[in-house]
Amino acid sequence: MDTEGNSKAQCPTAPGFSQDGGLANWHIWGWMLCLLCLVITWIIAIVTINKHLRNYYEPEIQRHKVRVLLYPPVYSTLAWFSYLRYDYSTTIMFFAALFESLAVYNLYTCLQAYLQPYREENEGVKEEARPTVMPFIKVHIKSRWGMHYRIITDILVYQFPLWSVLDAFISIFAEWKGYYCVNSYSFKGAHVYLVIINFISLSLIISALFTYLAVYKQEWIRARISAHGFFWCVKGPIMINFYIGTLLLSGLAYNGTLHGTDGSQSSEGIAWSTEAVENGLEVIIDCVVMTIFMGLMIRYFGPQDSIARGVNTQAALTAGGEHYYNDDSDMGMHEKLSYGAAFKDAYIRYIPEFIHNVATCGRDSSALAKKRARLRRQKKMMEAGNNMETTALNTF
Description:
Layout: H1 28-54, H2 59-69, H3 71-84, H4 89-121, E1 132-134, E2 137-138, H5 147-177, H6 190-215, H7 217-223, H8 227-254, H9 274-300, H10 304-319, H11 339-348, H12 350-395
Antiparallel strand pairs: 1-2
Helix pairs in contact: 1-3, 1-9, 2-4, 2-11, 3-4, 3-9, 4-5, 4-8, 5-6, 5-12, 6-8, 8-9
Main location: membrane
Subcellular location: Membrane
Keywords: Membrane, Transmembrane, Transmembrane helix
């Protein structure tokens, strides 16, 4: 078995989803640590989600929160299985990355739900913004409530989950044909190209969300939410797992700092390939990071604020002799939904809603392109008219 790192990995490899390794390449202590993290993560997620569904006062906000809350336990579970079955780890983690991208989508839509009342309040208002996104980095938004900035942000955010879906299919197909080459940095395989594109896609969405948080800073204060807390609960694990769990460990394995053993120095006599060691460390990082951020999600994605607003609104309406509606009518408010109705709203409607929002973003993008083309034509016509007037005046 090769123990000298990824530099000698061959590409293409044998077609199929299974790699060298398997049950002999997982270590009991690392596996048990991941299992412990997994149990803690699931307990926290189930308790918090159950509290949401039993106090479902704000469907437009809470549906996104309960979806995000499933991200850490599901991702950790898939990572744990990939530790147990290293020979199928690449295929298993395709689906973990897919679920990760949908969590990012729900982070953005959750923030959009909090921002919606202020969009309605400022409809038609042209207000520029010059926020400081990062130290020494300022951006200029001509109209922060306008269609242009909203659609550009939608595109930069939605490209990440859409690319992740496409990436999963490309990766599975390439693995099947033997051209994924996860253990090689050869440009004959798909892995190198996908990592580069993933890096670009991740950088785009991080830049877009940092700008988005800075542009609407005053609105987050008015809504009494920590938008940056929301952001880091979701993007924090992604950034740590990608930059440390993927890029750093891959680099250490490639230059030989991280290497496998032939089993001679192990009490079990089990040989560990470099790839198996790298995968084990990456999974441990994933599971520990997810457990930590799952604890933070109790504060930022818990139902506390929705319960407080719902109870206060219900009490105010009841005191005034008004009814607190328990349906999706146009009455403007909702009583907390039943547990079954809340579950249906949160999870059953998930995929249709995602497809609808992506389609809407495409339609709005087309409308924006047509609007910009029309404005350019009008500008050219005005310039041509001014030039004709100037020429006529000069003639006289």
